[in-house]
Amino acid sequence: MLFYSFFKSLVGKDVVVELKNDLSCHTGKRRVDMDSCCRIAICGTLHSVDQYLNIKLTDISVTDPEKYPHMLSVKNCFIRGSVVRYVQLPADEVDTQLLQDAARKEALQQKQ
Amino acid sequence: MDQQTTNTVEEPLDLIRLSLDERIYVKMRNDRELRGRLHAYDQHLNMILGDVEETVTTIEIDEETYEEIYKSTKRNIPMLFVRGDGVVLVAPPLRVG
Questions:
Q1: What is the pLDDT of residue B5?
Q2: Which of A19, A109, B11, B62 makes an SS bond possible with A40, Cβ 3.0 to 4.6 Å?
Q3: Do residues A18 and A84 lie in contact, with contact meaning Cβ atoms separated by under 8 Å?
Q4: Is A32's CB within 8 Å of B71's CB?
């Protein structure tokens, strides 16, 4: 439950959720330009999270390649936890000492 | 009260516990690698890494010569949550040379 609690503490903060579905297989002579690869990252305010680390974001915008006009009118979204690759977090909102102590406790709990 | 408060290394996850607040190397699926400071992890290998550099390696195949060209792209992220199902390997940072 460590990360569930951690994300609950970040509700209201702005995050960038990067999804797994950027299956970009760049072959051929074309030079790989990361700026135009199909990496789907959604920037928004963390509204809520659940035990599966499903995420609800509000006031979203698609970062990087705005090649996804079908998201233009979407303001809020629900993201299934299993499709998340990364969540970029504001570094100053994170208490690293607290996290490390919590991770040690969680590791101990898991062994029991 | 029977409580296991041992600090000995018994199982693989204990090895990761030793790396808390240390820089680590993480190999992930889809030819990605991360190098960063480990702040938290759990039994799923979900992790929080600080001061991270992500390297994505791609192989381009020249249509004419059919040679494989390895290209890697890096970017830096100050604080990152990594979902455990993408993680393949966790190790101390590789020292080259």
A1: 59
A2: A19
A3: yes
A4: yes
